[in-house]
Write a structure and sequence with these properties.
Blueprint lengths: L7 H36 L10 H30 L4 H32 L21
Helix pairs in contact: 1-2, 1-3, 2-3
């Protein structure tokens, strides 16, 4: 008969699986968005650029939203690596997922910065935007 009480080991394994799954999902989302940004840039080669399409603005805000959640999950995963008694396979898997997550964040930032430069958009990922500045519009 299985005990109704969850052991610390079961709780740790459940949290590890959940964290690894969320890292995998967010990484895939950011890579997809970065790929879409590259598609936007490729489709506009050599053309005069007007206002940014709504799809571009929507995807930029998706990156911002995902990145905020992603930072919280990567912090949890980093703490799990340090404080949890993970076996070697779990440690290697989590470290690899964290490295992949960092790469996905960097790809999304580079791609969204290129889009922002192309369409002259200012948004929170750009460190040059002053506090309280509008999310879109011409740069000073």
């Amino acid at each position: 008969m299985k005990s109704e009480v969850e052991t610390a080991e079961e709780r740790r394994r459940r949290q590890y699986r959940r964290t690894a799954r969320v890292l995998r999902e967010y990484t895939a989302r950011l890579y997809r968005l970065a790929d879409q940004f590259a598609g936007y840039l490729d489709s506009q080669k050599g053309e005069t650029v007007g206002a940014a399409p709504w799809a571009v603005l929507r995807d930029i805000w998706r990156v911002v939203a995902i990145q905020e959640e992603f930072k919280a999950v990567t912090l949890i995963a980093s703490q799990m690596l340090v404080h949890y008694d993970l076996d070697e396979i779990e440690k290697a898997d989590l470290a690899l997922r964290l490295a992949d997550a960092e790469h996905a964040i960097n790809c999304a930032e580079v791609a969204s910065s290129a889009i922002a430069d192309r369409y002259d958009i200012r948004f929170p990922l750009r460190k040059s935007a002053p506090r309280g500045a509008p999310a879109t519009g011409p740069r000073p």
